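Hi Y.,

Following your request, here is the sequence exactly as I used it, all 133 residues.
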Amino acid sequence: MSKVVAIVGPTAVGKTALSIEIAKALDGEVISGDSMQVYRHLDIGTAKITPEEMTGIPHHLIICDINEQYSVAKFKQEANQWIQKITSAKHLPLIVGGTGFYLQSLTNNLSLGGQQDEKASQEFRQRLLEVLQ
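Below is the corresponding structure, written out as tokens. Let me know if you'd prefer a different format.
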């Protein structure tokens, strides 16, 4: 089993600074565990790390444009992929963020559905729209 460090808590309590210190000391890479910081260009109000603050520490899962949908299921899948990649490179994965459900999806290995559930959801929405018209 891979070792993973999780730094979680509310906005503006020092998670970012702590994560950089730990990443430098233990050869780590950061995986964003924040449901808002996953979006590019959504910097105000999310206290997103700046490139200068990263000081060369790789950061992952700041990946979506604001018009894209992102879910905890996608986060779990992509975070697990990054954990494997980072661990394979002999680095320490650090999950850093304030979205508890994201962390729970990993630590409790929650079953969150997948493409089959998304297809069923789309079909349901289509049927609902037909009924409402």
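Residues 76 and 106 are 6 Å apart (CA to CA).

Thanks again,
Q.
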